[in-house]
Design goal:
123 residues, mainly alpha, two-stranded antiparallel sheet, 2 strands, 8% strand
């Protein structure tokens, strides 16, 4: 019997490939950012040395992960907590300014009660 759902092995391969691609992309600019900047969170100022270095992430200032200039001008090192906070702040700001409305679907034009008055009138 044929099924439209992918097999478990296919999903495993897909996830593994996505992780490898992400690590390859992240690794290139992350290693460069760690060479350019001291291992300190740009927001809270915590120092990250040794094993804690993995908690330090590269934040793209313009939120474009494909904008990776070699001079690091679009990057800042943030701890995982400050990085999450930075993205949450952007999401909240976008919600209030409406800048994400361009991607929102058009409002519904469906009128569920249209013609109800005609149906409720007695003949």
């Amino acid at each position: 019997m044929a099924t439209d759902t992918p097999r478990r092995d296919d999903l495993h391969d897909l996830v593994a490939t996505a992780r490898r691609d992400r690590e390859r992309r992240d690794g290139s600019y992350r290693s460069r950012a760690l060479q350019l900047f001291p291992p300190v969170c740009g927001v809270c100022g915590r120092d990250f040395e040794g094993a804690k270095l993995r908690e330090l992430t590269v934040h793209h200032k313009d939120h474009n992960h494909d904008n990776n200039p070699p001079d690091g001008s679009n990057w800042e090192l943030l701890c995982i907590y400050c990085h999450d906070n930075e993205h949450e702040r952007k999401d909240v700001a976008d919600a209030y300014t409406g800048s994400s409305d361009a991607d929102a679907p058009a409002p519904s034009t469906y009128q569920p009660f249209a013609g109800l008055d005609k149906l409720l009138k007695k003949p």
